[in-house]
Amino acid sequence: LMSHLRVNQILTPIVKLHSFPVKQQKQSSEESSQKPLKYFGSQASRWTAQNSRSGPKRDIPWFQPYVVNFSVAIFLIYFCLIREENDIDQSLGRSLFEHVPGLEEKQLILSYHYNKENGLPTGDIEMRMMELGLKPETIG
Fold first, then answer.
1. What is the pLDDT of residue 36?
2. C-alpha of 19 from chain center
3. Is residue 43 one of the residues assigned to a domain?
């Protein structure tokens, strides 16, 4: 019995909302479709092509560009001029061949083969290979 009362309490307002006579609905929709739509004074008259292409104008404070530019300038002054070098900066100054063991030898071998196949000079490569203890004759 309680659940039946509860269902009636829930459904009764819904039924009341949709209890308009059908003739009134048809009549009002026909009248509104016969009248011209009002353009001036509507929201459509205030809509511009710029709103369609770029969206609504963002409301930013007038001082925001100045604050951003000032912050970037302070950061660059600190990072480029004031900051002292640390061990990471010093290691970035070294050659990649010093960081990765065996890389220079592998690169020299690849360059040597490429230059041989394409008829390019290999004198500088052979000299560096000799300095590192590699023999160009033994490379197959």
1. 79
2. 52
3. no
Kindly report the pTM of this predicted structure: 0.42
Q: Is residue 77 part of a domain?
A: no
Question: What domain count does the chain have?
Answer: 1
Residues 74-89: tens digit of each pLDDT? 999 999 999 998 999 8
Joined tokens for residue 140 = 């197959």
**Is 122 contained in some domain?**
yes
CA 52 to CA 50: how far, in whole Å?
Answer: 5
Domain span at 120: 95-138
Contacts of 103 (CB under 8 A, 6+ apart): 96, 97
User: Residue 2 carries which side chain, given as an amino acid letter?
Assistant: M
Q: Is residue 25 part of a domain?
A: no
Q: How far is CA 54 from the centre of its chain?
A: 17
